Amino acid sequence: MSASGYAANTSHVPNTNHAPNAKSAQQCQLDSFAKPLFELEQNIEYHQLENGLRVRLLPQPQQQTVNISTLFNVGSRNEPQGQTGYAHLFEHLLFKGSENLPGDGYAQQMNRIGARFNASTFFDFTRYYAQLPKQALALGLYLEADRLRRPVITEDTIANQQGAVLQEMAGAIDNQPYVRQAMEYLLEQVKGTPYGHAVIGSKADLMQADKASLMAFHQHYYRPDYAQMTLIGALPDNTLELIEHEFADWQKSTAAPSRFNDLQIDAKASHGSIVDERGPWPAVLMAWHTVGRNHQDAEAIALLNQYLFQQRDSLLARRTTRAQQTMLHLSYPLALEHHGVANIVLVPRANESLDELATIVETLIDDVVKNGISEPQLCNVKAAYLETKLAKLASPLTLANMLSNSQLRDKRTPLTSPWQRTNQVTSDDMARVAAKYYQHKAVRLDMLPAWYIRSGKTLLEWLPKSWSQWLEEQAL
Description:
The protein has about 475 residues and is of the alpha+beta class. It folds into two domains: about 25-40 and about 260-475, Cytochrome Bc1 Complex, Chain A, domain 1 (2-Layer Sandwich); about 60-245, CATH 3.30.830.10. It contains 18 helices and twelve strands. The strands form two sheets. The protein has a six-stranded mixed sheet with strand order 1-2-6-3-5-4, sandwiched between helices. Strands 7, 8, 9, 10, 11 and 12 form a six-stranded mixed sheet that branches. The longest helix has 20 residues, at about 155-175. The chain is globular and about 70 Å long. About 40% of the residues are buried. GO terms for molecular function: metal ion binding; metallopeptidase activity.
């Protein structure tokens, strides 16, 4: 894939492994490094068809490809009781036959022209994306319109894709140590809400899906006023006309659009445990209820997650890696539209207990609440955020997906408004959100292996550190 002309600008971002020399917020001048966001955004064309379909066009004549990303505001949160997993199953079905492309016709045509294509389903949305040669734009839009608007679903394709989803469920969830139990434990925390079940759904609901219910799902949620489409790359002058030709006569659904509210969670500390005989080693998961991505605290929380857990030189990394207290730690926060979840998974070294690691995390949070974050540190975190955003400009397909998933409040400024909100976060904001959403509110889950591994691990914790680490290295 050809790189965007803006990719080279990422080299001017400060090295985030070293704090800048800034001594105050006023001296942390990052807007000059954010200039590519502003420059690129000025080239975006915004359109909305009469049927409600929102379209963004970003011409990049230097590219040899066109990248199409179409996002629908339908995900697992839209699924009623008894239909969990429908959004994800339907994502599969849209690759398996339409009015003019029966069976695998879509994939065959896309492969014939050398295109890349895929899709993903989340709690809040389903996204379809493709990268194709610039000469094939008209064909690509025809193929997309046919399958998105006119799918043909048969009992055979339903059965086939039910099997595919069950294989995916087995490989990604049920055959992995701890994953199923940990997922269900976390979902239990928001039981009774639209986010209270897994995106992939339950096996029972999936196997009960039938043609009538799936077509009703399509009719209700696959509608132009639920969609955002972004095209980036070597776009011809008649690109909008091509889009209108394929999508302008797509009628809105008569059903009322779905409405959701931010979750109201009484967050409080809890502690549970699970045992999985397949588990190779114990680990501890800690999670915190935060806020949806439209909330006024969303940017401060995102920066706090980076500062505590995600950056290469995060507080946790500096505290545990250098002291050789963890083998591994991972953080994948969820930024949903109406809720958020911060999290960290820690795998201890042989001589460290899960309690000790949990205490370290709580201590780091307490420190932020008490002392905040220095201005140079805050500048460092913002620079890391900015570097990540600028890196996405280098991939037109990644950028197309990002733009299609922009918030309604950022309709005309999808790149710069999120950065400006982030740049306005203060040290006081960091301390405030740490106290409000994190301090003494961790949902802790100990993930434990078979008894004999636990027993051996407990013994290693009592041995001198040099002995336990030697034994650990021999075992590994």
